[in-house]
Amino acid sequence: MTREEAKAVAERELVALRDCPNIPGVIIAELDIARGRGSVAKLNRHAPSGAVSWHGCARDVLERLEYPVSDTAGRVRVRLTLG
User: Fold this and answer.
1) Are 67 and 38 in contact (CB under 8 A)?
2) Domain ranges for the chain
3) Cα–Cα distance for residue pair 9/21, rounded to 1 Å
4) Tens of pLDDT along 33-68?
5) Would you give the DSSP letter of residue 2?
6) How many helices (H) and strands (E) does the chain have?
7) Is the full-model pTM beyond 0.90?
8) Other beta carbons within 10 Å of 78
């Protein structure tokens, strides 16, 4: 799984991400991807936290996506511009 592939998948849901309350105009998501499923490891360089209002929403959006299946699990970092 390349960063470009993961970014292309995530960009399909920019509208849903924009709907997250208080989300910043740019987010950097670190995703652990295995067998086509993503798990959010970090959002804007921080572990997802219930103390940050938009983290839960963004995490839900990014983790429900189906990423290309690869034989190798890995971590990718994608920068998404929402504004």
Assistant:
1) yes
2) 3-81
3) 21
4) 999 999 999 999 999 999 999 999 999 999 999 998
5) -
6) 3, 3
7) yes
8) 20
